[in-house]
């Protein structure tokens, strides 16, 4: 049986393409997966911690030095708006991150409170490149977590209108 030359060439090209796909490394991803993290503000590496302790309704801030309560559990909480959503829970207090009193409006501080699994405590963690993420409330995706004073490494967290290229909304999730 004689196989036409064109068929052999096409088969060879297909085999070569499949081989190249199999040997190509998967692209690197900065997506956050469920697990335990220390969350740092990218501009100054100050890390997220509840201000003054482990009680409910405590405002959350960043701090430049190692401090008790800087570890957070990020757990999958479902999908919303076609994106994965997460609950962010402090490992020391067992309390969840949410906008103050559950209000998802601009300039609202972020606090920790009893976990309720409501949308107020669900967050999108969106990859914005170079290993950084934005933390976006499920209830208002126009907003993102930033600092009241991004130049101060002891500032409180708040919600503001986010932009993927704005460095004031970039966070690093460092797995522990």
TrEMBL record:
Signal peptide feature range: 1-30
Protein name: Ricin B lectin domain-containing protein
Keywords assigned: Signal
PROSITE patterns in alphabetical order: RICIN_B_LECTIN
The Ricin B lectin domain, residue ranges: 71-146
InterPro entries, sorted: Ricin_B-like_lectins, Ricin_B_lectin
Pfam family, any one: RicinB_lectin_2
UniProt superkingdom: Bacteria
Phylogenetic placement of the source organism: Bacteria, Bacillati, Actinomycetota, Actinomycetes, Streptosporangiales
């Amino acid at each position: 049986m004689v196989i036409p030359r064109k068929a052999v060439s096409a088969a060879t090209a297909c085999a070569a393409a499949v081989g190249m796909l199999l040997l190509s490394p998967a692209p690197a991803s900065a997506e956050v997966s469920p697990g335990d993290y220390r969350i740092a503000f990218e501009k100054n590496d100050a890390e997220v911690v509840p201000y003054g302790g482990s009680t409910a309704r405590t405002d959350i801030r960043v701090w430049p030095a190692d401090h008790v309560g800087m570890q957070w559990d990020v757990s999958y909480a479902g999908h919303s708006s076609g994106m994965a959503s997460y609950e962010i829970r402090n490992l020391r207090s067992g309390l969840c991150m949410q906008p103050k009193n559950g209000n998802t409006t601009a300039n609202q501080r972020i606090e920790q409170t009893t976990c309720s699994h409501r949308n107020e405590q669900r967050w999108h963690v969106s990859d914005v490149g170079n290993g950084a993420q934005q933390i976006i409330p499920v209830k208002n995706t126009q907003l993102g977590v930033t600092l009241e004073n991004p130049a101060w490494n002891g500032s409180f967290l708040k919600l503001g209108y986010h932009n993927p290229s704005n460095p004031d909304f970039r966070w690093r999730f460092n797995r522990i």
